Write the structure tokens for this entry.
Amino acid sequence: MYLLAHDEQARGPYDRSRTGLLVRAAALAELALRGRLTETGGGSVTVAGTGSTGDPVLDEVLRQAPGHGWKQLVRRDRGQTLAAVEDRLAAQGLLTVEASRLRRGGRRVTVSDPAVLRAERERMAAVLHGATPVADIPAADAALSALAAAGKVRSVVSRQDARALRDRIDACTGRLGTLAPGLEQAVRDLPTTMIAAQGGMGGS
């Protein structure tokens, strides 16, 4: 999700606040796909299983999950999670992270191999524009497509795509409901959550 939202010219996410929410939602979807997060009848998130996931970012999100709802978890510590994802990708050699000279605490991020970025975007384009039934698309790809559309990541889903592919995007988002209805709703509510997070509705 981070790579899809990366802006090469800006040397970082196209919008750090929005990307933080998208990365948090992607981490929750990944944990749900792995069967580590489930949903109770009341919509609360429950942790299943014990032990590490093998990924420190996912482990931290998992640690925070008990007793909260999906929307709360999407918003929680999103800035820290975003930075942790950048550090993780840098450790894997996919990114170079430098301190920004223009903004204290800011970061300048470069994708080490632009071909990786292009490949990810082409994969998502194939999901959205392809003829494969949504039910047959890998669940992780359907989730990423839904998140890119909800987050208005225009390098993946243009305004024209958002209109022309509305039904397919809706079906991809619906795939999340098979994991947890609350997770699906949290993703559908992301546009409103993003406005609130940026102060447009007085919330965080």
The longest strand covers residues 95-99. Confidence is low (pLDDT under 50) at residues 200-204. The first helix runs from residue 2 to 5.
